[in-house]
Amino acid sequence: MDPVDDPLNYRFGIFYFNKNDNRTVVPKRARTFGYTLNFASWKSYVFVMLIIGSVTFSVIISNR
């Protein structure tokens, strides 16, 4: 069984968190809905911060 299918690997039912899974991007439980991040990996937090930073930068630049 793929660890993605185990409901115990999810926090609050939606955030995948598995320290034993070294993948950063994993398929969602419902495979047709795409992919999600493994929040046990520090790379996921870097990715989220880059997204937030780029959106913030775009908003600041567009308001000048």
Characterization of this structure:
The protein has one domain (3-62). Helix content is 33%, strand content 16%. The protein has one helix and four strands. The chain has one helix at 42-62, and strands spanning 10-11, 15-16, 25-27, 35-37. The strands form two sheets. It has a two-stranded antiparallel ribbon. The protein has a two-stranded antiparallel sheet with strand order 3-4. Strand 1 and strand 2 form a beta hairpin. 6% of the residues are buried. The model has no long low-confidence stretch (mean pLDDT 94).
Keywords:
two-stranded antiparallel ribbon, about 35% helix, about 60 residues
Structure, briefly:
The protein is α+β, with helices and mostly antiparallel strands. It is 33% helix and 16% strand. It has one helix spanning 42-62; strands spanning 10-11, 15-16, 25-27, 35-37.
Describe the secondary-structure layout:
Layout: E1 10-11, E2 15-16, E3 25-27, E4 35-37, H1 42-62
Antiparallel strand pairs: 1-2, 3-4
